[in-house]
Amino acid sequence: MAQQLLEVKDLHTQFFTRDGVVHAVDGVSFELAAGETLGIVGESGCGKSVTALSLMRLIPIPPGKIVKGSIVFDGADVLKMDDDEVRGIRGNNIAMIFQDPMTSLNPVLTISRQISEALELHLKMDKSEARKRTIELLDLVGIPSAKKRVDDYPHQFSGGMRQRVMIAMALSCNPKLILADEPTTALDVTIQAQILDLLKNLAREFRTAFILITHDLGVVAGMTQRIHVMYGGKIVEKADTGELFANPKMPYTWGLLRSIPRLDERRKAKLLPIEGLPPDLIAPPPGCRFEPRCQYRRDVCREKEPELVHIPNAKPDHEARCWGTQEGGWLVDTDWRKEVGDTRVIEEIKQEVAQLPPEPKPGDVPPSPTAI
Ligand SMILES: Nc1ncnc2c1ncn2[C@@H]1O[C@H](COP(=O)(O)OP(=O)(O)OP(=O)(O)O)[C@@H](O)[C@H]1O
Ligand code: SF4
Ligand SMILES: [Mg+2]
After folding, report:
1. Which member of 42, 150, 349, 357 has the lowest number of beta carbons within 10 Å of its beta carbon?
2. 4-21, pLDDT tens digit by residue?
């Protein structure tokens, strides 16, 4: 097996609050190879951002703490690194793109200063080289008249353009992994599509490993090769993207699929929420965390928590955390199409999925972004 770029094992991140301990990320494990793309999907509060922030050791301490587990990036244990080593991987090896670019851009410095300084510091470029590269990067992410705009301040750019600048900044130090956390939620739909396209194309071109975090299964479908569905601080279903849309198994995933608006309705439609509320992560239900909202539940679901295990009659790496989908379970042979109802939107999404590039093969060497 090829060496993984990222290996997360049994990650537990908690927040110690006055009301109790919030089990925000509760035993999450996954791997990512160089150049691979992964979507993490789930409703608000399920632990997506805390997972991403944990990878970069950006959890505020206190109240937060990574209490258990390991994160190995490029062979090094992130949780054992000292502060200097962690700073070295942030922005340099792992770049993060947030929903609000202003959380990463400094409002009082020009774009040129912000990107060039990072290039001078991390890639040891001299001033003129760094400026030239900054303009190239702004060009690459589609900033018109990059040569002129490079000396502007962040507030002189529109929201979509600021997000492009953020992407340029993320790419500037040739990261091995880009973490994008709801990168387009604050933008209007047309701009969202453009930014997602840009991210997809750049991740493909540079063969950068890429984790996209979103609450919308429809968004992630055409972007990443694999999808992990999260619920209540845990991964509840994982599969490659084609498999997840061809053979979704977990009732919570069905709920997410039901809630995707059709492509032609996306402009006006909001996601249809799944009935009921996500679990309280201070005192989560003792059995399956989705049990209080699940129409397929049985007694065992309330009594005992299911493990994330392979599903019979599914691809080998397709796993779910559900009693109903385990060997002999009552949902193994259920036809999800009947349960989800209107599957037209899923058929549309499958066409996007069909255009995804193949998984990288072991030994594939991505081109250096500086060569482009
Ligand atoms: N600083 C904090 N203090 C206390 N609890 C926190 C803190 N940050 C996050 N949490 C809790 O951790 C849980 C997971 O939060 P997280 O931000 O990861 O959710 P998310 O899946 O990213 O949601 P969203 O889609 O709304 O961004 C939530 O219950 C949240 O309230
Ligand atoms: S374990 Fe039970 S309650 Fe949980 S999703 Fe599966 S069927 Fe529903
Ligand atoms: Mg979040």
Report:
1. 357
2. 999 999 999 999 999 999
d(CA 327, CA 82): 45
Residue the block writes with tokens 């750049």:
202
- The pLDDT of residue 371: 44
The half-sphere exposure of 109 on its side-chain side, counting CA atoms within 13 A, is: 12
Atom of ligand 1 nearest to the CA of 52: 18
pLDDT in tens, 241-282: 999 999 999 999 999 998 886 555 554 445 567 889 999 999
Q: Which of 229, 231, 301, 325 to mutate to test the pocket of ligand 2 (most atoms within 8 A of CB)?
A: 301
Please name the amino acid found at residue 141.
V
Question: CA separation (Å) from 127 to 81, 171, 242?
Answer: 31, 18, 46
Residue corresponding to tokens 């845990």: 234
Ligand 1 atom with least separation from CA of 233: 14
Q: Which of the pair, 307 or 355, is modelled with greater confidence? A: 307
pTM score, two decimals?
0.91
Mean pLDDT in residue range 295-299: 97
With residue 177 as reference, give the H or E element that holds it: strand 177-181
pLDDT digit string (tens) for 48-104? 999 999 999 999 999 999 999 999 999 999 999 999 999 888 877 998 888 777 777
352-355: long-range contacts, CB 8 A cutoff, minimum separation 24: 352/221, 352/222, 353/221, 353/222, 353/241, 353/242, 353/245, 354/242, 355/222
Backbone angles phi, psi at 32, to 5 degrees: -145, 130
Q: Is 324 in the pocket of ligand 2 (CB under 6 A)?
A: yes
* Beta carbons within 8 Å of 10's beta carbon, 6+ residues apart: 27, 28, 29, 68, 69, 70
